[in-house]
Design a protein that fits this description.
Elements (H helix, E strand, L loop, with lengths): L6 E9 L5 H6 L2 H6 L2 E6 L8 H5 L3 E7 L5 H12 L3 E5 L1 H4 L5 H7 L1 E5 L5 E7 L15 E5 L3 E4 L4 E8 L9 E11 L2 E6 L11 H14 L4
Parallel strand pairs: 1-2, 1-3, 3-4, 4-11
Antiparallel strand pairs: 5-8, 6-7, 6-9, 9-10, 10-11
Length: 221
């Protein structure tokens, strides 16, 4: 493999430690290396102001929850993705990262709430998207974790959903996006709402679709 063949991944992690950003993101580093990536990590959002470093990166794996991003950092990230750098993440590390409208526009979704605690719920890969490489061959599966209620952009490509039963605030079941992709200029973005805790990724389907999502989002070589 030549230097030109090696893809570069940058793991950006931090924010609220309850989402275990280091532990969970470290769990994907061996996979990325096996797939031919060199992997660097950053634990400071100032990296999003380094245009040259981002331009040389094929995939940003973001695992940063409930943080503060500056306009310069948000714009730097969006510009890099627009130019072709991929962006991928899961759960609060990507949909509950920052209260920034430009960032929400980039990722195509924002966290609103989740019911208290963990509970069993089904993730339903959409049959009409069965040909997408992220969910190909996956059937419905059950997870025991937080279930995210999100607001999403109509421009996203929803690959899987989850359903909230009728409750006090909504009088009928609500189908909610759980996994989606989108494009932003020349870049690709992958988002999964599943992944609050490390053992969520012990569910084979969660691990599979997340790994596939990282590869799908990455800039090709």
């Amino acid at each position: 493999m030549t230097t030109e063949d090696i893809r570069r991944a940058l793991v950006v992690r931090g924010g609220w430690d309850g989402h275990r950003p280091v532990t969970i993101s470290d769990g994907f580093v061996p996979f990325l290396k096996e797939r031919g990536f060199s992997v660097d990590t950053a634990e400071d959002l100032a990296v999003y102001e380094d245009a040259d470093r981002l331009a040389a990166t094929d995939l940003i794996v973001q695992c940063w929850s409930m943080g503060d991003i500056t306009p310069e950092q948000s714009e730097g990230l969006a510009a890099a993705v627009r130019a072709g750098t991929g962006l991928a993440g899961w759960h609060g590390g990507i949909v509950d990262s920052f209260q920034d409208h430009g960032y929400h526009l980039l990722t195509g979704g924002a966290f609103v709430m989740h019911p208290p605690g963990f509970h069993d719920h089904t993730v339903h890969p959409l049959p009409e998207r069965a040909g997408h490489p992220v969910v190909a061959g996956l059937d419905d599966f059950t997870v025991h974790t937080e279930q995210y209620w999100v607001l999403t952009d109509p421009h996203v490509d929803v690959l899987a959903t989850t359903t909230f039963p009728a409750g006090e605030l909504h009088d009928r079941p609500v189908v909610m996006p759980a996994v989606w992709t989108r494009t932003w200029g020349a870049g690709r973005i992958f988002v999964s709402t599943v992944g609050h805790k490390p053992d969520d990724f012990d569910v084979p389907e969660v691990r599979t679709l997340t790994e596939r999502g990282l590869l799908w989002a990455s800039r090709g070589r």
